[in-house]
């Protein structure tokens, strides 16, 4: 019966009249594009949607730089009876607070270009959706199905353009299949309001980005591109503590993410701030032990989140291909090479100068504007190590200033250079891959016991039976006998570890990474 209905029914299109003021439709009303801003992108289908009929949308264009993604759902109100004045800026919360409208946000992790979103409503008033025909996700309940329903689509936030595809009908969700359907991790209403507020603030400051575009010529050798908005280099004087003379033989490697543009000398990497997903950049040679690398960051000066990731790898970038470089560097951790990623940088200002140095004992230390910020991670220094970064959000430029070879560093018994604390002013959040063989494994160690280069195995004499391995960092009473998975820190007794594991969103007391398990250690 559903197939016969589909055969005689015209595929849905966007309603030609009932749409937000920023929506532009193609000649066939199958493609909707939001021309300006982040909002005023509300659209409807031109006809009611049948029960179990999948409304299929292809995400044609996704432009990062806003908060939030597509909103979608259903309404009992005929769009043909609406005037343009009745269509608000937002589906959430403006429409969903009115009777007869149901809509929620697509999680941003699914808002990827060329993904196909399908959503439908069953006879019980339940709305399901799927991405690329994968398993359905229960999205909404309580839809009124006694009358006709039109699809509601808000081309919002990072979602810039969508296309309606031909309809299909969904299978009936049996009780067994419904029990396995995932529940959608939808944003609560307060988060919709927060996204709207953040985007309004961002839009009010767009003039900053336009002014910054005038500084394009200050980046030597960078081709003019209206989509690339560089930061203003040399906006501030060089910070104190940065050496006056730097070697400039280290540059960015030609292998880079497709959303990165280099200057002619490959000393400056810029992103397209409107769509910058894959922004991995590498150094063109390994960083020497004891060598300090200085880089300057630039951003748009807008009130939007930005992320700068830093990492160390044993993988020679010349062996990589552009199509192998992911948007999220954590996907690199599954490769056979040695990869370490650090994300928890504090909020940076345009013109801030960061420094990174690998010590002989494997500790990687960093500084900001000449001030030491302590240790980021421990790495295996027995192999050549390249540096890499990812640039996202308002961080839209990274400039290599140069390197300097430091004099030998005196390491205190705690493992940190004398006169500096190892604790960073931000949480030490990093990921390390584990290779298949034990000799290649990358261990995550506590800051008090950094990883040393594996030169030759040395077995210390057995400790006396009365010796303890330190006190538990929770109860300060029992002996430490438990290691945390996956971060590897050994700082708890088994009793406290089991209690901590049961807590919601439990995290390591040292590095704040999520606790997946606790493992008791038995000593001979």
CATH topology of the largest domain, which one?
Answer: Jelly Rolls
- Any guess at the CATH architecture of the largest domain? Sandwich
- Main pleated sheet: 9 strands, mixed
Report the radius of gyration as a whole number of Å.
Answer: 27 Å
Mean pLDDT: 75
Q: Please identify the structural class as seen in this structure.
A: mainly beta
Helix content: under 10%
Number of helices: 6
Estimate the global geometry from the Cα principal axes: globular
Could you state the CATH homologous superfamily of the largest domain?
SPRY domain
Number of strands: 29
Number of domains: 3
Overview features:
524 residues; Jelly Rolls; nine-stranded mixed β-sheet; seven-stranded antiparallel β-sheet; 29 strands; 10% helix; 29% strand; metal-binding; zinc-finger; Znf_RING/FYVE/PHD; cytoplasm; E3 ubiquitin-protein ligase NEURL1B
Overview of this protein structure:
- By secondary structure, the protein is mainly beta.
- The chain has 3 domains: 178 residues, SPRY domain (Jelly Rolls, Sandwich); 154 residues, Jelly Rolls, CATH 2.60.120; 39 residues, no CATH class.
- The protein is 10% helix and 29% strand.
- The strands form 5 sheets. Strands 2, 3, 5, 8, 9, 10, 12, 13 and 14 form a 9-stranded mixed beta sheet that branches.
- β8 and β9 form a beta hairpin.
- The longest helix has 16 residues.
- The radius of gyration is 27 Å and the shape is globular.
- About 19% of the residues have low confidence.
- It is an enzyme of class 2 (transferase).
- One of its GO terms (molecular function) is zinc ion binding.
- Its main location: cytoplasm.
- Keywords: Cytoplasm, Metal-binding, Notch signaling pathway, Phosphoprotein, Repeat, Transferase, Ubl conjugation pathway, Zinc, Zinc-finger.
- Pathway: Protein modification; protein ubiquitination.
